[in-house]
Amino acid sequence: MPEGINAPTGETRACANCDTPFVIEPEDFLFYERMKVPPPTFCPDCRLQRRMVFRNERALYKRTCDLCKKALIGIYSEGTPFPVYCSECWWSDKWDPEDYAMEYDFGKPFFAQWKELQDRVPRQHTNNTVTSTIVNSVYTNCAGDMKNCYLVFGAMNDEDSMYSHYLNYSRFCVDDLYVLNSEHCYECVDVEQCNNVRWSQSCLGCRDSAFLFDCRNCNDCIGCVGLRNKQYHIFNKPYSKEGYIKEKESLGLDSRAGIGRFRERFMRELYYKLPRKHYHGQMNKDSTGDYLSNSERTESAFYTKNARGSKYIFWAQNVNDVYDYFAWGDMELCCECVSGGYGMHNCKFTHTCWTELRNVDYSSLCFTGSDLFGCIGMRNKRFCVLNKQYGEAEYRDMRARILAQMDIVPYRDAQGIEYRYGENFPIELSPFAYADTVAQEHFPLSSDEIATRGYGKQGAQDHANNAVTKGAVDLPDSIENVSDTILDEVIGCAHNGLCTHQCSNAFRIIPAELEYYRHKDIPLPMLCHNCRHGERVALRNPLKLWHRKCRCSGVRDEEGLYVNRGAHFHGKDACPNEFETSYAPDRPEIVYCEQCYNSEIA
Q1: Nearest to 196 by CA among 212, 213, 208
Q2: Which of 8, 96, 304, 595 is the most buried (most CB within 10 A)?
Q3: CA-to-CA distance for 336 and 339, rounded, in angstroms?
């Protein structure tokens, strides 16, 4: 810092939305000064919720293209105030975003004018990438290069897969979440480079196994935790090949009842009995978060790879000097962005913008350009406000005047909260129903709460044909007793709508799915795909950190549940290490620091 300039100090403020105290650190003030934006008035959780409501990943509707009239499966229901075009029409030259340009009115709040523009400009029916190939995969969204996929979301380069989320470079996978470079995986969460693995979590390089947690390079293992380079193990106990096959056959993992019994035993006898590292990830320096790798000077980052100097980010990769970001990556010097990347620089308050964008504020669906303010749908454009083209000097003058006007004429939402320059879009301006967005997964609200807060109508996906013909409790216990007539049934979801997972109340089995269950000897599911997804989401740690100390007390964990097997750096004394972790203090897991964990697992 130059001589004579005092470094800022940290400051605690009350969130303008929920009144919770939050801290703005000295380095945060420096970042906001560099970005030329004021410090936030919302706490990190409320900012994350506000970003998430501008991304609908999984809610699909039947409608028609408002230009060519083709039937669509898309993320907007009929009756939206704005037109919805199929991808072919939206990316064509059949319409021009500048035809919707508006004169800026300095007597009206900026966000009110933005809403007017949003209600007029056409939107693409899904957020599938335009340069990708989508083959026989119409029930996908936020996806690219998909073949023979059904209800797969937030995904890239997948084939012959179903009912999965954040699935990448994988094949023959069903009911998975955060799975990468894998094949034939079923009901897995956070696994990579795995093959024929079922009901497992946080594993790498495993094959022909089931009910694994935190295992690496393990083959033919069942019900194991924390193993490395092992084969023929059950409940962490080694077997001969013959003994393993015999014991495996006795477990009954081809029936729903047998799976339930095994899962209960696995959780009771092993899952909570062994220590785990305070976070998932590796190769990080001066960083905090979870599912974090190869990052430096990065804080409160989740599901993030290759980050530098960033903070408050979720599901990101290749980001430098980025604050408050969700979904995708390849960007630098940006803040409060959603679904953006591919070379973005100095962009603020954008959603669904990408590809070599620079100096963009408060914009959506803009691609390849620079110096845009409050624009929607612009491509290869510069110096535009509310989709109207200006000369460079006039644009810069307009932008400066708008920033000043946003402080003088703030927008007031349904809760009475004022929005000036530096605030992200109010939740009530999202083009999606709150319940259809990622926000509902992490910040669930009832329909009454949604209505009271003015967050749009409750999501209402089309379940008109869901007249139940077979109850979930009436399904056969194993797949061998299921006939082809199941394809004609409408099965009632076992949750019956009494959950927070956007339950569809009923579901069908499609032919490819039935074939998969038969090939893998897996019983039919009893829950709809939304509820199955919701239960997988619940297996992940929250996107939140707590300050804790290592539970290693020397020769055992501090509650005496686990006796250490390795030599620890602190000897027989309690471990002095403290850390930030996504394991809340009241959780039952035995949480060790990385050093103590490595002494037990490596």
Answers
A1: 208
A2: 304
A3: 10
Nearby residues of 89 by Cβ (< 8 Å), 6 or more positions away: 65, 67, 68, 95
Partners of 204 in the β-ladder? 192, 216
Q: Given a cut of 80, is residue 193 above it in pLDDT?
A: yes
Domain segments of the chain: what residues?
1-60+112-122+310-462, 176-277, 470-539, 545-602
Lookup: tokens for 431 = 């083009």
Task: Report, as an integer, the average pLDDT of 214-239.
Answer: 98
What one-character DSSP code corresponds to residue 552?
Answer: B
Q: Give the global pTM.
A: 0.94
Task: Note the pLDDT tens digit of each residue in 130-141.
Answer: 666 899 999 999
Residue listed under structure tokens 């993030």:
304
Q: Which residues contact 326 (CB under 8 A, 6 or more apart)?
A: 48, 51, 52, 55, 313, 314, 315, 316, 337, 338, 339, 438
Q: Which residues make Cβ contacts (< 8 Å) with residue 524, sequence separation at least 6?
A: 475, 476, 479, 482, 486, 491, 509, 517
**Alpha-carbon span 537 to 384, nearest angstrom:** 40
Both structure tokens of 427 = 């939740």
Alpha helices by DSSP H, listed for 177-269, are 241-250, 256-266
**Nearest 10 degrees: CA dihedral of 40, 45, 46, 47?**
50
Residue 466 CB-half CA count within 13 A: 17
Closest CA to 227 of 241, 214, 240, 210: 214
* Side-chain half-sphere CA neighbours of 473 within 13 A: 2
